[in-house]
Amino acid sequence: MNDSYTVTTDRKWMKFILGQFLTNAIKYTFEPNKKVYIQAKCQEGHLLLTIRDEGIGIPSSDLPRITKAFFTGENGRKTGESTGMGLYLAKEVCGKLGHQFSISSVKGEGTTVSVLFDNEDTATGGEGNAAIENRRSDESL
């Protein structure tokens, strides 16, 4: 099924958020035959967008701090490329846009990040691919 969804959000900032999620998923999913999944589904009249990877996962000791500014954690220190700002900014921007950000992870199994577009303009539909129309301007931040 190829459903279409519409949400109200900021195009530029949502592109940044999704880019951050996908970059992290790909960066930490480097073993052969591991995958990254993207799913959009309607949940009680709101759209839930989820990106799940089968990567190395985040240690439970790091999980409470990964959205804090400049926190790179165990995995970030191993790769040497992390600034500790990506997930912090993603969470902050989601909050400013009125979207709910969540993340869960199990070390050795992967990570799931989600955005719940919690606004009255979300169209209903079943599970499927998302075509997200962005209608807020940069001025909404």
Task: Give an overview in words.
With 141 residues, the chain is an alpha+beta fold. The chain has 3 helices and 4 strands. It has a 4-stranded antiparallel beta sheet, with helices on one face. A hairpin with a 3-residue loop joins strand 3 and strand 4. Helix 1 runs antiparallel to helix 3. The longest helix is centred in the N-terminal third of the chain and has 17 residues.
Order of helices and strands: HEEHHEE
DSSP helical segment count? 3
As residue ranges, the low-confidence spans are 122-141
Cα shape: globular
User: What integer is the average pLDDT?
Assistant: 83
Q: In what order do the strands lie side by side in the largest sheet?
A: 1-2-4-3
Topology:
Blueprint: H1 11-27, E1 36-43, E2 46-53, H2 73-79, H3 86-97, E3 99-106, E4 110-117
Summary, kept brief:
The protein is an alpha+beta fold.
Keywords:
4-stranded antiparallel sheet, single chain, disordered C terminus, 141 residues
